[in-house]
Write a structure and sequence with these properties.
Layout lengths: L1 E9 L2 E6 L2 E9 L2 H8 L7 E6 H6 L5 H10 L3 E5 L5 H9 L4 E4 L1 H5 L1 H11 L4 E8 L2 E4 L4 E3 L3 H10 L4 E6 L11 H10 L4 E5 L5 H9 L4 E4 L1 H4 L6
Parallel strand pairs: 1-4, 1-12, 4-5, 5-6, 6-7, 7-10, 10-11, 11-12
Antiparallel strand pairs: 1-2, 2-3, 7-8, 8-9
Helix pairs in contact: 1-3
């Protein structure tokens, strides 16, 4: 299982939100580029997951210059989400050097443009960010939910070759109460052609071992790693 460290950018700093609330912000670093440079010294960490929280809330890439600097100054393959609303947003991020684009809102609200991105740039460059809130897909910074079934949402993407889904259990995000193992195992069984990236709730190395045993392709690790509880 691939272990992917995650940083969330908000107003130019590395932060974490508690269950997606912009009213509960913890700052971990004031210089994201230097932080990423130190991280890149680890040869066993090929990817870095970045979320632009300003983008997720407002739809504008307020932190893109920092992401571009990280791409240019480190060998890390950056996968980025937050604020991707249109086909042009995907194109802009890929041109900026982002290796993989993670989209939630666009994939759900503008499926034609998302499918066009899968076709134009290839499924290896596009990851569907499936954020689940009470069993439903949440978008727009987790402020809205979609009532379609997962089969209805994922079916067209699969027909265009989608290979990776980053799945976050919002109720566990940043809570370090352990990942929702039954949920991930169930998703992998329902959609065997997809590589699921687990996100949310990791609180120990045992959690990582259990996700690995459950057959998850990868895991994004945020708060537990930032606070030194889990080593990756």
């Amino acid at each position: 299982m691939i272990r992917i460290p995650a940083i969330d950018l908000y107003d130019g700093k590395i932060v974490r939100l508690r269950q997606g609330s912009y009213d509960e912000v913890t700052v971990y670093a004031d210089d994201p580029v230097s932080f990423a440079e130190r991280l890149s010294e680890r040869e066993d960490l090929p990817r870095l997951h970045i979320v632009d929280l300003n983008g997720a809330r407002d739809g504008r890439f307020e932190n893109l210059s920092l992401v571009e600097a990280i791409v240019k100054q480190t060998p890390l393959q950056v996968q980025m989400g937050g604020g991707i609303r249109r086909f042009e947003d995907v194109e802009r991020l890929l041109l900026a050097g982002v290796h993989r684009v993670v989209s939630s809102s666009m994939a759900v609200n503008r499926p034609e443009e998302w499918l066009s991105a899968l076709e134009e740039f290839g499924p290896g460059r596009c990851i569907f960010g499936m954020d689940l809130k009470d069993g439903k897909v949440a978008v727009g910074g987790w402020l809205e939910t979609d009532n379609r079934t997962l089969e209805e949402l994922l079916g067209p993407m699969l027909s265009y070759g989608l290979t990776e889904v980053l799945c976050t259990d919002i109720a566990r995000d940043g809570m370090m109460t352990g990942p929702n193992l039954p949920m991930y195992a169930g998703l992998q069984k329902r959609f065997p052609d997809l590589n699921f990236i687990a996100s949310g709730g990791v609180s120990s190395n045992e959690d990582l071992a259990q996700l690995d045993t459950a057959g998850l392709f990868a895991c994004v690790i945020g708060k537990a790693w930032l606070e030194g509880i889990v080593q990756i």
